[in-house]
C-alpha cells in the first residue's frame, strides 16, 4: 500500500467470488447467517422508508436465494410498520432460510402470489429476485416478468444488484431489471463500474453493514484488489505536495508532442490541462506554423518549432525535443494525424515516462503494440477510448472493461486507461482502479486532450514517484470527471466544452461539495 489510505470499505470493489468468500469467512467465524440477513434487511428497510415518504403500498419480488431472503425480511418489517405489502414469488423453490422467512411472513397475512399483475397497483417495487448468486440467464416466464416490470412506471429498488446483471462483467443475462435505485450490500461489486450495467443501476448507493476490514483483506489480496478512486480520495491526494524550497524544473518538466495544421486546438487543450496539473514547466513540440497561436494561449510554455509535412503534420523532431534528460515525462498524440508517421519510433526509446493518446495510439496500432510496449524500459501509459482500444488490441478475448485493462496491462507491461462512462485503469503490477462517476457532458471534442495534459503534468511532477503511475492515472481520470460534473451542474451539459472544463479543474481541488 502507498502512504495514502484506501483501507476503508468504500474503496474496495469485489467480484461475486470474492464476496462469497468474504461472506463465508464471516459465517465460519461464527456470525449466524440469519443474523446477518436480519441486520442487512433492517438497514434496507430503513433506507426505503427514508427514500419513499408517503408511500403505502409496496411490492416485493422474492427470488430463490438469499437475495430473496433479504427481500422477505424487508416485506415482514414493512408489514409490521403498517405498509400494505404484496410479495411476488415467481419460483416455488427456495433456500431454507428464504423459505422460513416466507412462511412466517405468510402467517402474518401478507399476500404471496405468482401473478405479477397483483403488484401493478404498488407505489414502489423492491427487487430481491437475484443478487450476486445469479449464474444463469433469465428466460421464459422470468424474463417476461422482468420486461413487464420495466414497462411499468413504478419506481424499482434493487437489492444488491439489479436482477439479471452479471455481478462481475455487468452484462445483461437474458434480461435485467432497470432499477431506479440499487442498494449495493456490504462492498461495491465490479458490475457497478461497467458501462453495460449503467442503464440498469439507477442511483447506486452502498449499504455498509459492518463487514470487518480484516475479513476483506484476508480474501482480497493486493494482487487481485480492485479499488475505487472516489472524488474524496482523489481530492485528498491533490495538489501533489511541493516542498517549500523548490524551483520550476524540480516540479517536473513535461514535453508535449502534439498538433497539426488540421488539429491546432488540441495542443492548446492539452497545454491547458497540463497547466492545471501544477507541473513546473511545459515544453511543446508542434508544427512551426502554430507557434504564434500557442504563444498567445500558453505564454508560459516553451515552444519547440517542428518542420512540417505538406499536410501540416510534424515531419520530424528537432534534437532539443529528444534530449530526454531535460524532461520528466513526454505526452504524445493529440491532433498529430497519421501523417506524423515516422514520429513515434524514436519516442518509444525515451527513457522517461511516456503517455500516449489519440493519434499517438493510432500510430502505435500500426506497429505491433504489445511487442513494442513490452520492449520499453520506462513507464508507458495509454489512454484509449473504446474505439482506439479496439484498434490497438483487436484480438483481445475479454468482454468487460475491467478485464480488458487488466489483461492488456499485464501483456504489454504498461498502464492502460479505457475511457468511458465508467473508466477503468490497470497497471503492469495488476493494480486496478475504477472511476465511480462521470458525466455524458464530457463526450465532446477536446475533452480527451485536456485529460492527456492533466495526466501527463501529474506524471512529470511525481518523479521520483511516490504514487504509482496507475494511481496517478486514476487520480487524473477522477479529477477530469469531477471537473466535468461540476461544470455541468453550474453550466448545464451544454456548457461543458473542453475549454470550460479546464476552468473547473482547480475548483475541484478546492471544492468540498462532492462527498462520494
Ligand atoms: N454477502 C453477504 O454478506 C450477504 C448477502 N446477502 C444476500 O445474499 C445474496 C446472495 O445470495 P445467494 O448466494 O443465495 O444468491 P442469489 O440470491 O443471487 O440467488 C442464487 C439462487 O438463484 C438460483 N439461480 C441463479 N440463476 C438463476 C436463473 N437464471 N434462474 C433461476 N434460478 C437461478 C441459483 O441456483 C441459486 O439458488 C446477496 O446478493 C445478498 O442479497 C445478505 O442476505 C446478507 C449478507
Ligand atoms: K436484486
From TrEMBL:
GO terms for molecular function: ADP-dependent NAD(P)H-hydrate dehydratase activity; ATP binding; metal ion binding; NAD(P)HX epimerase activity. It comes from the Bacteria. Its EC number is 4.2.1.136, 5.1.99.6. InterPro entries: Carbohydrate_kinase_pred_CS, CARKD, Nnr, Ribokinase-like, YjeF_N_dom, YjeF_N_dom_sf. Residues 231-512 form the YjeF C-terminal domain. One of its GO terms (biological process) is nicotinamide nucleotide metabolic process. Keywords: ATP-binding, Isomerase, Lyase, Metal-binding, Multifunctional enzyme, NAD, NADP, Nucleotide-binding, Potassium. SUPFAM superfamilies: Ribokinase-like, YjeF N-terminal domain-like. Binds 1 potassium ion per subunit. It catalyses: (6S)-NADPHX + ADP = AMP + phosphate + NADPH + H(+); (6R)-NADPHX = (6S)-NADPHX; (6R)-NADHX = (6S)-NADHX; (6S)-NADHX + ADP = AMP + phosphate + NADH + H(+). AMP binds at residues 419-423, 448. (6S)-NADPHX binds at residues 66-70, 131-137, 160, 335, 385, 449. K(+) binds at residues 67, 127, 163. Residues 19-217 form the YjeF N-terminal domain. Its cofactor is Mg(2+); K(+). In the N-terminal section; belongs to the NnrE/AIBP family. Catalyzes the epimerization of the S- and R-forms of NAD(P)HX, a damaged form of NAD(P)H that is a result of enzymatic or heat-dependent hydration. This is a prerequisite for the S-specific NAD(P)H-hydrate dehydratase to allow the repair of both epimers of NAD(P)HX. Homotetramer. PANTHER family: ATP-DEPENDENT (S)-NAD(P)H-HYDRATE DEHYDRATASE, ATP-DEPENDENT (S)-NAD(P)H-HYDRATE DEHYDRATASE FAMILY MEMBER. This is Bifunctional NAD(P)H-hydrate repair enzyme.
Amino acid at each position: 500500500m502507498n502512504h495514502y489510505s484506501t483501507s476503508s470499505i468504500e474503496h474496495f470493489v469485489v467480484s461475486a467470488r470474492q464476496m462469497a468468500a468474504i461472506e463465508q469467512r464471516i459465517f465460519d467465524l461464527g456470525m449466524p447467517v440469519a443474523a446477518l440477513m436480519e441486520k442487512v434487511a433492517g438497514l434496507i428497510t430503513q433506507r426505503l422508508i427514508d427514500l419513499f415518504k408517503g408511500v403505502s403500498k409496496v411490492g416485493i419480488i422474492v427470488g430463490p436465494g438469499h437475495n430473496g431472503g433479504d427481500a422477505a425480511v424487508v416485506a415482514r418489517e414493512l408489514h409490521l410498520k403498517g405498509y400494505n405489502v404484496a410479495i411476488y414469488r415467481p419460483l416455488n423453490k427456495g433456500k431454507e432460510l428464504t423459505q422460513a422467512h416466507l412462511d412466517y411472513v405468510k402467517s402474518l397475512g401478507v399476500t404471496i402470489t405468482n401473478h405479477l399483475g397483483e403488484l401493478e397497483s404498488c407505489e414502489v417495487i423492491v427487487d430481491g429476485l437475484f443478487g450476486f448468486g445469479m449464474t444463469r440467464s433469465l428466460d421464459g416466464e422470468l424474463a417476461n416478468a422482468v420486461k413487464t416490470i420495466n414497462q411499468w412506471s413504478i419506481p424499482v429498488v434493487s437489492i444488491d444488484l439489479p436482477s439479471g446483471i452479471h455481478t462481475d462483467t455487468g452484462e445483461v443475462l437474458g434480461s435485467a431489471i432497470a432499477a431506479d435505485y440499487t442498494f449495493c450490500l456490504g462492498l461495491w461489486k465490479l458490475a457497478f463500474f461497467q458501462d453495460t450495467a449503467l442503464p440498469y443501476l439507477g442511483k447506486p448507493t452502498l449499504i455498509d453493514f459492518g463487514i470487518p476490514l480484516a475479513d476483506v483483506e484476508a480474501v482480497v489480496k493486493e494482487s487481485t484488489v480492485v479499488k475505487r478512486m472516489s472524488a474524496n480520495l482523489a481530492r485528498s491526494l491533490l495538489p501533489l505536495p511541493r516542498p517549500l524550497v523548490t524551483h520550476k524544473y524540480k516540479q517536473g518538466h513535461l514535453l508535449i508532442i502534439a498538433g497539426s495544421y488540421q488539429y491546432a486546438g488540441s495542443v492548446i487543450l492539452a497545454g491547458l490541462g497540463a497547466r492545471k496539473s501544477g507541473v513546473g514547466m511545459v515544453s511543446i513540440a508542434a508544427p512551426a506554423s502554430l507557434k504564434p497561436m500557442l504563444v498567445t494561449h500558453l505564454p508560459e510554455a516553451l515552444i519547440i518549432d517542428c518542420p512540417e509535412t505538406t499536410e501540416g503534420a510534424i515531419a520530424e523532431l528537432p534534437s532539443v525535443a529528444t534530449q530526454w534528460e531535460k524532461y520528466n515525462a513526454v505526452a504524445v498524440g493529440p491532433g498529430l494525424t497519421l501523417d506524423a508517421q515516422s514520429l513515434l519510433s524514436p519516442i518509444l526509446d525515451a527513457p522517461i515516462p511516456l503517455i500516449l493518446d489519440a493519434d499517438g495510439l493510432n500510430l502505435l496500432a500500426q506497429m505491433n503494440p504489445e511487442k513494442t510496449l513490452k520492449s520499453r524500459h520506462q513507464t508507458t501509459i495509454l489512454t484509449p477510448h473504446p474505439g482506439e482500444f479496439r484498434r490497438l488490441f483487436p484480438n483481445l478475448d475479454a468482454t468487460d472493461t475491467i478485464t480488458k485493462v487488466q489483461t492488456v496491462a499485464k501483456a504489454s507491461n504498461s498502464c492502460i486507461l479505457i475511457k468511458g462512462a465508467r473508466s477503468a485503469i490497470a497497471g503492469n503490477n495488476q493494480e486496478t482502479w475504477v472511476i465511480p462517476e462521470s458525466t455524458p457532458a464530457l463526450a465532446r471534442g477536446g475533452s480527451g486532450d485536456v485529460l492527456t495534459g492533466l495526466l501527463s503534468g501529474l506524471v512529470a511532477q511525481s518523479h521520483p514517484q511516490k504514487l504509482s503511475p496507475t494511481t496517478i492515472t486514476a487520480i487524473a481520470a477522477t479529477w477530469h470527471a469531477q471537473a466535468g460534473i461540476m461544470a455541468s451542474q453550474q453550466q448545464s451539459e451544454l456548457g461543458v466544452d473542453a475549454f470550460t472544463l479546464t476552468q473547473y479543474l482547480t475548483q475541484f481541488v478546492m471544492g468540498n461539495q462532492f462527498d462520494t
